[in-house]
Each structure stands twice: as structure tokens, then as C-alpha cells.
Design brief:
- The chain has 15 helices and 11 strands.
- By secondary structure, it is an alpha/beta fold.
- It has 2 domains: 138 residues, no CATH class; 225 residues, Rossmann fold, CATH 3.40.50.
- Strand 10 and strand 11 form a beta hairpin.
- The radius of gyration is 23 Å and the shape is globular.
Length: 427
Amino acid sequence: MNSSISPSSSPSTSKPDVTLSLKTSPSHAQESFRPEERGVRLIQLLLSCAKHVSSGNLHRADAYLRQISELALVSGDSMQRLSAWMASGLAVRLVKCWPGLYKALNFTKLHKPAELPLAQSIYTPHFPYLGFACSVVARTLVRSLWREEVVHVVDLGSGNVRLWSPLLKGLAQLAGGPPHLKVTCVCSRKSVLETLGHGLVKEAETLEVPFQFNPVNAHLRDLTMEMLNPRSGEIMIIVSVLGLHALLAQDDRVDAQFVAGKSSTSVKECKQMGEFLAMVRSLSPKIFFLVEQEANQNTNRLVDRFVECLHYYSAMFDSIDASYGASLLCNQLERLALEEMLGREIENILSCEGLEREERHERHVSWTVRFSRAGFKPVRLWLDPSNDEKGMFETRVPDGYKVVTERACTMISWHERPLYAVSAWSC
């Protein structure tokens, strides 16, 4: 997506000239660069544009957006496609300088709701990230629950039936029979809950696993202990997949501008997250599984998180190329849908501040501090990469993925760039 936003240079007219369009065909400027040169040039332009956006220099930012639009291409190579989305995020931030204009555009296409079931159905089969993470969670759970009678697993927002299929199969094979399994799914989308509940009930019946599904139609920030309906005698398990970071959103807009001062390197206190973890800990869960993006995008300064966003999502888009580069047209359309999902994350990271910015990814070391503050301790993940890695990938994946496992954390990387971290905690 290529964007151009510039207020008129004439003092007598204040109406901005705004164009937001998808660019699908190459320009003459693109043809004058080799791919490597074009990638370097795009990075230079994006960094310069981010600095001008964050300092409020709209005219200079607009000039860089125009140059980026000549080189970025939503159907080009991975750097061109990423640049289109990065430029779009910066452009949306500029459009917000005119609240009326931004809201008018918002009515139509800038923020159409994410199709989570579609995105996950594309994401999981073609990438080992979540499929692998779900397998690690399932194997650790099966090893931990083989003597339990009633197990209550709380899914904090993933709504992905593939998260539970390995667990149901593992429990069905336990010596002495499976425990009674109760799954509570917390999700703000009712359609996701309906789809998940239907799929789990059907599979549990097939595997003859005693099963109960408890849908909770709510956002994590509104979740209460009563909604989870805990019962005496049941073993509580908490699982969060790529959703807990939304609770880090807070009103930190005062320090959001690109100004002189120290960069935030320490773990910031967050009242909402602290209260949530305290509430969860009061349930005395046996294990809390956490799967999160391995990135440092919860900094106040726009340029700091722009650079981290560029590094992180360039690896993501490169891995997408490895999976879809030689695919047929139908899979190319799937790729565009997947990149749009990632593009919305990029837009939220770059264009939003305060409570509106929910994509606040943090590295595992920061989550370790947060969970330790709340009174949790790390738990060993049951995984032997030398034996399990290939078996956990349901489909063939390209070279370049790497799995590094320690006792309480598994890192999934693409060409040495960690993308996701899986960890487990107990009270």
C-alpha cells in the first residue's frame, strides 16, 4: 500500500491532499534498481521518513513517502511488500493529524475487522511457528496431566482449534484413560467461539474424551475470575497464544514523540498487566503457557520501535517468501491475506499511541521479569529438538527455521532471527 499525505503549501488553503492506494505494477524508478540496491534504498527512505513523521515534519515525510511509493510494491519481492506496509503505517499516523479525515477513511477500508479464523487457517499449515508451539504445549500438558481426573484449560484468546487437537489426541492415548477436559475460551468474537466449540466437541466425541466447552465472549481486559467459572478439585491450566501483550496497552502518549532522552531499556510497569497476572495467580494454575512474538516493540519512541519493527517483520516477510515464492496463484492470494494480517500489526505499532496501541510485543527476558514480579516460576518444557522437531511439523517447511530450547523456553527462529518464544510458568 502506497500513501501520500501533504498539506497544501498555500496558507489560504488548509485542506490536505491525501491519496491511499494499492500499487500492483512496477514503475520506471523500480526498473532502474537491482533488487539488492532497491532494498537498501527502501530501508534508507523508510528510516528517514520515520524520523520526519515522529518529529512532525509533514512536508518532508510526504516527500519521502512519494519516493517510497515509486519503489514499494505490494506484489513485489519481500522488501518491497514490507516497505509498502511500513509506509502505510507511517501514512496513517500522518492522516491522524486530521481527525475528521482519519475517521472518514476509517469508515471504509483502513481498519476492516481481521478475519481471525481465515488468518489462522492460512498461518498454521504454512508456517511451523504456531503449529510447533502448540505441539510443545500439548506434549508438556500430556506429560503433566496423566494422573489427573479433571482438567480445566483456559484459552486466552487464540480461538484456534489446532491448539487443542494435539492435546485431545495425547490425552486419549493416556494409560488408564483420559481425564475429564473442560476448555474455557476467552474471545471478543462470538463467531470464533462458535467455530472453536463445534470443532472441539466433535473431535472429543470422536476420541472419546470426556469434554465440556465454556465460551466467554469478552476482551482480556474485561475478564474476571467469575467468567472462568473455576471449580474445586479441577486442575487449572492457562494458555495464551499471541494475545497477552494487548494488556500492556496504557496511556503513555506523553513520551511517545521523538525527543531527546534515554531510550526505554528497562521493563516498564503496567498496572493492567500486573492486576491480570495477580488475578490469574489467585486461581493457582498448575501451568501458565505463554507464546509471544520475540520482539521489542513496546518502546515509547516511534523511531526505536520502527527500527525493531523493520528487523522483525523483514524476517517474517522473508519466511513468507520461502513458503509461497514458487506457489500457484491461489496460494499467492493466501499470501496477500496473511501479509495483510501482519500489515495491520505493523500499522498499529507505527500509527497508534496510548491505549489504542495494543501490538506491544516484548522479548522473553521482559516477560520473565513480569511473571517473576507476579510470583510465577519457570517450568520445564518437554521437548527434545533432536528427536521431536521434524515430527512436530505437520507439513514440509523450507530450510532456514531453527529451534533452540532451554528448560523453560523454546525459541523459534528464521535464519538466526528469533520470531516466537514459548515458555511455561507455575505458581
